[in-house]
Amino acid sequence: MTRTLITGGLVITAADEVHADVLIEHGRVVAWAAPGTQEWTADRVIDASQKYVIPGGVDAHTHMELPFGGTFASDTFETGTRAAAWGGTTTIVDFAVQAKGERLQAGLDAWHMKADGKCAIDYAFHMIMSDVNESTLKEMPKLIEHGISSFKLFMAYPGVFYSDDGQILRAMQVAGDSGGLIMMHAENGIAIDVLVEQALARGETDPRYHGEVRKALLEAEATHRAIQLARVAGSPLYVVHVSAQEAVAELAAARDMGLPVFGETCPQYLFLSTDNLAEPDFEGAKYVCSTPLRPKEHQAALWRGLRTNDLQVVSTDHCPFCFVGQKELGRGDFSKIPNGLPGVENRMDLLHQAVVDGHISRRRWIEIACATPARMFGIYPQKGTIAPGADADVVIYDPNVRQTLSAETHHMNVDYSAYEGKAITGQVETVLSRGEVVIDQRKYTGHAGHGVFVPRGLCQYLG
User: Fold this and answer.
1) Which of 355, 358, 249 has its CA nearest to residue 310?
2) Is the pLDDT of residue 1 over 90?
3) Sign of torsion over alpha carbons 346, 192, 278, 356
4) Which helix (H) or strand (E) holds 41?
5) Hey, which of 53, 98, 178, 236 would disulfide with 141, CB 3.0 to 4.6 Å?
6) What is the largest CA-CA distance in the chain?
7) Mean model confidence pLDDT for the chain
8) 62 - beta bridge partners?
């Protein structure tokens, strides 16, 4: 089938809400027009009456098969991208990891091997730099030429991914000169390690202490420091998984000065809190991630940041570990609980619930989940919108269906849901990836290997 017509739906992009028919041919959007104004013929007609027609989601922060704490994230590129498709996401940007002492290219090659031929939807990569030195700095411009235009650094995890301020400054200088974007995990890991050691010495071993030692002030301090280093280097900065109201304030202040500073948050910080970390019988381990969940009062600042555009993107930081056998590694020592939550399947639905709840508008939903991540990471308008020439990554979304999120019904390869029992309104019905139907009225029709690697250009919010 080469020609598909989607009729009768409300097309929602970051810029428009309009009833329109959408014509797709050879994997791309060809045109859209007011209903009934064009006599288009097609091999396949999809009736989207009473439904939304939206761009496929772009999740710019996932970790499939990530090695962490002596184990691996439980979703493979095959299972994780299939779950993403079920949730209306049609492009992920995952993180290739440079091992200490290795070249960046070696890490990238390893991630290409993991993903090639396995993905149900399209994918791209960022590069985690865990060893900033003369040779890896020289590699950065070469990677940008090959479509890897963003580099993640960590102020956390000493001895694993940590970079010191000098290394960060040098990487930022190269990024500033070559058009790359530095992504920062902003937490003061040196100070946090002291607090972890002190908490364990006091016998504070339960999961809730994970949130207590990773203090909001240490996220804010690191965010402030990253911003100042970026200013010195003349580099743009993208701060990942912002969770604390004090960190949002640092970003807002920088943006008020006109600095090229950007912020991302995640559904877990918008919908979950330290109440979850404190769940009894080690259940709190399910919610251990870094940056950690915060007390509920931080949520209002995050929603406000999304409305005022001090936060621009909602990604998942999808990094699932099973409760049985993986999260349990930290029984008796919260510092040994693998850090990460499952969420790639839930993001579009949870953000639609935010529309229902009045936190954001429908167009802002599409902006923070589709268009802005595509622009931020150099794949717009190929991804993130419905427009002539764009890839036909299109979701038919039923805004009226009620569903309850549960591990029993999700498709992520993990034995619990972070949102177990949460009732929400809205559900993905049909998903097209480059014109191919991968979810057909709640049936999976895709296959491993359909998804292809997408080389990225530069951040479109710069220069």
Assistant:
1) 249
2) no
3) negative
4) none
5) 178
6) 74
7) 97
8) 94, 318
Q: What Cα–Cα distance (Å) separates residue 196 from each residue in 34, 215, 219, 279?
A: 59, 11, 15, 20
**Residue 461 tokens, joined:** 């919010």
- Across-strand partners of 313? 264
| E strands present in 74-213 | 89-97, 122-128, 150-154, 181-185
Residue 178: predicted pLDDT:
97
What's the burial of 463, exposed, middle or buried (CB within 10 Å: 0-12/13-18/19+)? exposed
Which amino acid is residue 167, in one-letter code? Answer: Q
Scan for tokens 């995952």, then name that residue: 94
Place of tokens 């999260």: 327
Instruction: State the DSSP code for 392.
Output: -
Query: What are the structure tokens assigned to 145, written together?
Result: 């030429």
Residue 21, burial from CB neighbour count under 10 angstroms (0-12, 13-18, 19+): buried
CA distance 33 to 7: 10
| Dist CA 432 CA 393 (whole Å) | 5
Which sign, positive or negative, has the C-alpha torsion 71, 75, 76, 77?
A: negative
Backbone dihedral angles phi then psi of residue 172, each to the nearest 5 degrees = -65, -40
For residue 162, the 8-state DSSP code is B
Instruction: Give CA–CA dist 207/196, Å, rounded.
Output: 12
Please state, in angstroms and rounded to a whole number, the distance separating the CA atoms of residues 114 and 355: 36
- The answer to whether 338 touches 327, Cβ cutoff 8 Å, is yes
User: How far lies 1's CA from each of 49, 86, 138, in Å?
Assistant: 22, 22, 46
- Tell me: pLDDT of 16 over 90: yes
